[in-house]
Amino acid sequence: MDWDAFFTVHRDLPREGPGLADDVAWAGRLSAVPGDGLVCDAGCGPGGDLAALRQLVPKGRVDGFETVAHFVEAATVRFAGDPSVRIIKASMETLAGSYDLIWSAGAVYFLGVTKALNVWRRALTETGAVAFSHPCLFTDKPSRAALAFWEGEPGSIGTESTTRAEIASAGWRVLASRPLTDEAWSAYYDPMLARCDQLEAGEVSDAVASAIAAARMEAASWRTVSHETGYMLYVVRPC
Ligand SMILES: C[S@@+](CC[C@H](N)C(=O)[O-])C[C@H]1O[C@@H](n2cnc3c(N)ncnc32)[C@H](O)[C@@H]1O
């Protein structure tokens, strides 16, 4: 993977994975976040969910944790006028504090469910919750194309049952789960494809052309396997 080329495509995008403001609102309602609460966006990317998280805590604060420098910069610029949003360039493994909600869209698989929940338990209030979207196979007999869709991503991809088993064996319970909608995926892929068009309108190196082709292929593949795989959103609390 040529990361420079990858991040040339993955730049100036509103978000870096599927999701909608309505997903954040749903998780916020289930976890009963107080209006003056403290919320964390673990792996916030360019900050696509920060506005919706901010709405959960109008009198509180939102901390975004992210390790990729230009995502940190994009999120920081986006919320420069809001002192209640802090973007921290640090690993979500280092979360400390008393969060009412740790939200993590499409980032838990970088740590693994068990590790993330073990680390984050100590960063929650007594009534705190974690909400995370996570790759999921919607069938026990996925096609090769569905498995190939996740190739190269960290960790192994399971079904909702296997993820629920992991959550339970880490000592957490699921308050609710629901799959991300097609609209949530479009919120990620439509701007990414527009970015590909924009780059192709100018001169691009071979490496960037390959990264554009890979991005287009990913979006096209998702369309063919979306009935078999996608993201499941879980809201969980320690038992
Ligand atoms: C699929 S993207 C999702 C980004 C964002 N949540 C969104 O939905 O737009 C996953 C993000 O997790 C970040 N990430 C991966 N490992 C991380 C870590 N250990 N600490 C903080 N962020 C991390 C990546 O840099 C990336 O921005």
Could you walk me through the main structural features you see in this protein, from its secondary elements to its overall organization?
- With 239 residues, this protein is an alpha/beta fold.
- The chain has a domain at 16-139 and 154-181 and 227-238: Rossmann fold, CATH 3.40.50.
- It has nine helices and seven strands.
- The chain has helices at 3-9, 21-31, 50-56, 69-78, 113-121, 144-149, 160-169, 182-200, 206-225; strands spanning 38-42, 61-66, 85-89, 99-105, 124-137, 172-179, 229-238.
- A seven-stranded mixed beta sheet has the order 3-2-1-4-5-7-6, with helices on both faces.
- Helix 5 links the parallel strand 4 (99-105) and strand 5 (124-137).
- Helix 1 packs across helix 9 (206-225), helix 2 (21-31) packs parallel to helix 3 and helix 8 (182-200) runs antiparallel to helix 9 (206-225).
- The radius of gyration is 18 Å and the shape is globular.
- The relative contact order is 0.18.
- Bound molecules: S-adenosylmethionine (SAM).
- S-adenosylmethionine binds at residues 15-17, 19, 43-45, 48-49, 65-68, 71, 91-93, 105-107, 110.
